[in-house]
Specification:
Layout: H1 12-27, H2 33-46, H3 51-54, E1 55-57, H4 61-70, E2 74-77, H5 80-85, H6 88-92, E3 98-100, H7 105-114, H8 118-126, E4 133-137, H9 141-152, E5 160-163, H10 171-179, E6 185-188, H11 195-206
Parallel strand pairs: 2-3, 2-4, 4-5, 5-6
Antiparallel strand pairs: 1-6
């Protein structure tokens, strides 16, 4: 007989985090205090405990990204799915906005002319935002590669990079590029990631503000 537990709607998330806590304890996994809520929300979103071992944070990453949000930084994503998932009301309290330029007509036109991805062009467009930008990349490794290129060409320096694209082609290499910069970051090593993971990381930070 299948046992269905009766849980009130408002208690589902709390119950889920209790289960995550128990499972982490069972696996003998400890997480740094300042990174704990981010890692747990990613696990909550994905039901994948591998993230407890593969999410990488630069020194002082959480404090830095909170500081950026408090100063009114914007967030730029590489998918409208991630954009939809970010709590824009919480971000707006500090004067920040969330953007995704992937569907913009000018982005599509330039991408076709240059024969490059819209994600890459979107990063070039985002570099024109005249305020600090937190990049939340959950789908396109070409977005991370373009950010690395414009950084090394000294054209633009991202304020923070959340690098969690998912897939097989250039995904791991693109993440390694970001891991080897001096940009503050949260990056997931390996092939896993996704738009929902990028949004979950943003929200985990915003919910602490």
């Amino acid at each position: 007989m299948i046992n269905i537990e009766c849980v009130l709607p408002e208690e589902i998330e709390k119950k889920s985090f209790e289960i995550i806590d128990k499972e982490l304890l069972h696996r003998g996994i400890s997480i740094k205090k300042e990174e704990e809520l981010i890692v747990k929300r990613v696990i909550h979103t994905s039901a994948d405990f591998d993230y407890a071992n593969t999410l990488c944070f630069s020194d002082g990453a959480v404090a830095k990204v909170k500081e950026l949000i408090q100063s009114g930084a914007d967030i730029v994503t590489d998918t409208n799915m991630a954009l939809a998932g970010i709590n824009k009301k919480a971000l707006a309290k500090f004067g920040g906005k969330a953007h995704c330029f992937m569907a913009d007509e000018d982005v599509a036109l330039i991408a076709k002319q240059k024969n490059i991805t819209r994600a890459a062009v979107s990063m070039e467009k985002a570099a024109n935002i005249i305020k600090p930008v937190i990049f939340a990349i959950g789908n396109a490794p070409t977005a991370l590669i373009k950010l690395y290129e414009i950084l090394t060409e000294r054209k633009y320096k991202p304020a923070f990079i959340i690098g969690v694209p998912v897939g097989f082609v250039n995904v791991e290499a693109a993440k390694e590029l970001i891991l080897n910069t001096d940009i503050p970051y949260i990056v997931n090593k390996g092939k896993k990631g996704g738009s929902s993971i990028a949004a979950a990381i943003c929200n985990a930070i915003l919910y602490q503000m």
